[in-house]
Amino acid sequence: MDRRAELTEFLKSRRARVQPEVLGIKVFGGRRRVPGLRREELAQAAGVSADYYVRLEQGRTDNVSQEILDAVADVLSLTEDERKHLAQLAKPTRRTSRRRTQRGTTQRIRPGLQRLLDSMTDVPAFVLGRRMDVLAWNDLAAALIADFAGLEPKERNVPRMVFLDPASHDYYPDWEAVAAESVDYLRMYAGRYPDDPELAELVGELSIHSSEFREHWARHDVKDKSFGAKVVHHPLVGEITVQYETLQLPGDPDQLLVTYTVEPGSPSEQNLRLLASWAATPDAPTENSRFPADTPELP
Q1: What DSSP line would sit under the chain, residue for residue?
Q2: Is 288's pLDDT higher than 50?
Q3: Residues 6+ apart with CB under 8 A from 38
Q4: pTM for the whole thing?
Q5: Distances (CA, A) of 246 to 103, 222, 228, 256
Q6: How far is it, in rounded angstroms, from Cα 224 to Cα 231?
Q7: Which of 140, 182, 230, 231 has its CA 20 to 30 A from that of 97?
Q8: What are phi and psi of 220, to 5 degrees?
Q9: pLDDT single digits (tens) 98-113
């Protein structure tokens, strides 16, 4: 992916959402040719010359200082994740360059990490790798989310599951929020590693096959994966509200441990326990699909 083009489109999209009146700029009659701030208005508010800001927005950032990036971020009211994304695009680090050569390599899961996952019998847990690939999981995660073992490695990818499997709309009652979150993190990853060819391949595939993905990707929103809550509707046990936590693993910053927990004493806890008992039976059915099959709910 073109880092300069990414920086240009990101800054343009952030400018478009800031109304000039917020900065005390008076807008007189007639339509403005651009939504939000003009480049010269942003430059003036940030305390830099218009020519300098134009070079920044064009990706010519060899000598840009952190102070200027901070000033621009302040004017645009960027979130902390957006500030990180701007810095990654404007000032790529040596770490990013070194990682370029590793994109084609297979990420390995330490045996001890898999044992840790397996020991978490009451908590769905899995490991995300580059581009939101699911690298490892425990039995309860497989029962709740998908039969990962029955999928090809390429199909064990969260954005592919969300955007290319129609069942995801039933599985996630708030599908739009889940879809936005997956794209926002994928865009954050693109800022870290803009030269990842497999990411470009993934984005291309999703763009071709999903208009919804294209719409989300065009927004240039970014958000790092951290913590939150989501609701899933499992066809066997019904609705489960989970709180998720994301932990970066030592030794490989591209590996994230994700855990799902439920509120003690809640209907979600009862449903998750029911699912765990079903998954523990030797003859529990499995389906080679991204999401659990649509089967009658358990009594």
Answers
A1: --HHHHHHHHHHHHHHTS-GGGGT----SS--SSSS--HHHHHHHHTS-HHHHHHHHTT--TT--HHHHHHHHHHHT--HHHHHHHHHHHS--HHHHHHHTTTTSPP---HHHHHHHHH-TTS-EEEE-GGGBEEEE-HHHHHHT--GGGS-GGG-BHHHHHHH-TTHHHH-TTHHHHHHHHHHHHHHHHHH-TT-HHHHHHHHHHHHH-HHHHHHHTTT------EEEEEEEETTTEEEEEEEEEEEPTT-TT-EEEEEE--TTSHHHHHHHHHHHHHTSTT----SSSS----PPP-
A2: no
A3: 15, 20, 32
A4: 0.86
A5: 22, 16, 9, 6
A6: 20
A7: 182
A8: 60, 30
A9: 444 355 577 889 999 9
Alpha-carbon distance values, 180 to 22, 71, 120, 145, 160 (Å): 27, 28, 29, 18, 13
In this predicted structure, what is the pLDDT of residue 28? 62
Tokens of 110: 């330490």
For residue 119, give every residue at least 6 positions away whose Cβ sits within 8 Å of its Cβ, in sequence order, or none: none
Residues in contact with 282: Cβ distance below 8 Å, sequence separation at least 6, in sequence order: none
Tokens of 77: 């009211």
Please give the C-alpha separations between residue 293 and each of 136, 233, 247, in angstroms, as whole numbers: 21, 12, 29
Burial (CB < 10 A; 0-12, 13-18, 19+), residue 106, is exposed
pLDDT higher than 80, residue 31:
no
User: What are the chain's domains?
Assistant: 3-91 (1.10.260.40), 111-279 (3.30.450.180)
Q: How far apart are CA 142 and CA 124, in angstroms?
A: 8
The residue count of the chain comes to 299
Instruction: Locate 164 and state its tokens.
Output: 């290319």
